Amino acid sequence: MSASFDSSVPEWLAPEPRPRVYIETYGCQMNERDSHALLHHLAERGYERAATPHEADVLLLNTCSVRDHAEQKVYSTLGRFREIKQERPGVVIGVGGCVAQQVGESLFKRAPYLDLVFGTHHLGEVPGLIERAARERGSRPTALSFERTWQTVLGDHEAPDPGGVRAFVAVQRGCDRFCTFCIVPFTQGRELSRPSASVLDEVRRLAARGVKEVTLIGQNITSYGRKDPSEPDLGELLRRVHAVEGVERIRFLTSHPAEVNESLIAAFRDLERLAAHLHLPVQSGADTVLARMRRGHTRREYVELIELVRAARPEIAITTDLIAGFPGESESEFEATLSLVREVGFDNAFCFSYSPRPGTRALKLEESPDEATRADRLARLLAVQAEVRAERNQRWVGQEIAVLVERDNPRRAGEVEGRSPSLHPVHFAGRIDELRGTMVRVRVERAGAHALAGSPA
Ligand code: SAM
Ligand code: SF4
Ligand code: F3S
């Protein structure tokens, strides 16, 4: 990364040693991407990355507020940062991301030692805010407005980890769906897509750098291109990415069932290098709950959609997100979720206990089941899902699958680890210096709860 000082760099940062920044990141891949972008902006202003908060001059926290637990983690980390600032008062502490967007300036009341707060749309301004906070102690600069363009929230930056085998490419941001439980539309704003030319440019550069697998990410990626008739939809974008030489595997996240169209299903049928995996959150198996969540589809429509996708790509792995204990959820509504897990046969499901979020419409619905009931339902859901997953994993035994090799097997010497199209870790005997970044066909011999093992075919 280029990093040179110029006359605008304030004295407290210059000249040597270079100021060091530590970033802790919570939440989704978009936050990971944002932290990389932040580091990039800061490197251009002369910063180095610190491995621990104890070595850093600037401590940043990129936060998630999707559930209360994630928000609480922010306050406990801030408590740790406070201790560092007590030892070294010159340290600058900043909070960004979804909690910053949600709580705003009142974060200063909760954490008076905090120096700056920045929202999800202002990453490029953070170096300037840090410098102001350091120059004018107590000024507490913020950048929280919802003014943005695709360049400011999806724009290119030098992707990190040269030599990495996999990379994320942000193509869409924000959400217009307003599911009644979800805070994302409030913290990330309306849907915005990155022009396909810019997406393809980044993919080509990644491929030239040796990246073999790209994952296109967006908070509601199935809305890609919808606001601009001159742009492709997601299915067509995948086709164009598929045509980039050197890209051996493509993935995308996260889709909404009501928005999966024929073009996307056709992409699964036609594009060999599009991984046979669809993450399609359903949240509940009861029509009444789906309606209260305003998901815009019924259970039957979801099941029929999965049938179409499986007809297009029979070996596809289907994963989902599920919420237990949504407001007013009765025992029989909950059981409908359990029966959907069995009916679809999810390869994996991320299961959550409902968490009330500020500003969302679900707060105005009936009360959610009490905490003990929510915990009990979550445990039952996890148990059924584990059973279904174990059963589904067995179907790989005896099959030959393509594995993109990434690293040594962290648990067993002499073996390497890669990912299958379905995202399962796969282990087999081999040397990482010879195999890293290669696609190896592996015959699966054993399937555990989370991983597969086999031998090169
Ligand atoms: N746009 C994606 C979608 O529609 O699934 C991602 C939304 S969110 C980042 C990921 C998952 O968190 C959701 O699918 C949902 O299962 C869960 N989630 C969101 N809000 C929640 C809440 N208030 N309580 C519990 N789980 C929640
Ligand atoms: Fe949240 Fe629903 Fe948008 Fe997903 S589609 S980000 S769950 S509002
Ligand atoms: Fe969390 Fe915001 Fe992502 S709420 S999941 S960091 S969009």
Task: List strands and helices in order, with pairings.
Elements: E1 20-25, H1 29-44, E2 48-49, E3 58-63, H2 68-87, E4 92-97, H3 98-103, H4 107-110, E5 116-118, H5 126-135, E6 142-143, H6 150-154, E7 166-170, E8 172-173, H7 184-188, E9 192-193, H8 196-208, E10 213-217, H9 234-242, E11 249-253, H10 262-270, E12 277-279, H11 287-293, H12 299-312, E13 317-324, H13 331-344, E14 348-353, H14 371-394, E15 400-408, E16 415-419, E17 425-429, H15 432-435, E18 439-447, E19 452-456
Parallel strand pairs: 1-2, 1-3, 3-4, 4-5, 5-6, 7-10, 10-11, 12-13, 13-14, 17-19
Antiparallel strand pairs: 8-9, 15-16, 15-18, 16-17, 18-19
Helix pairs in contact: 9-10, 10-12, 13-14
The structure holds S-adenosylmethionine, iron/sulfur cluster and FE3-S4 cluster (F3S).
Defining key terms:
six-stranded parallel β-sheet; OB fold (Dihydrolipoamide Acetyltransferase, E2P); binds iron/sulfur cluster; pyruvate-formate lyase- activating enzyme; 457 residues; disordered N terminus; binds FE3-S4 cluster; five-stranded mixed beta barrel; alpha/beta; single chain; binds S-adenosylmethionine; Rossmann fold; 3 domains
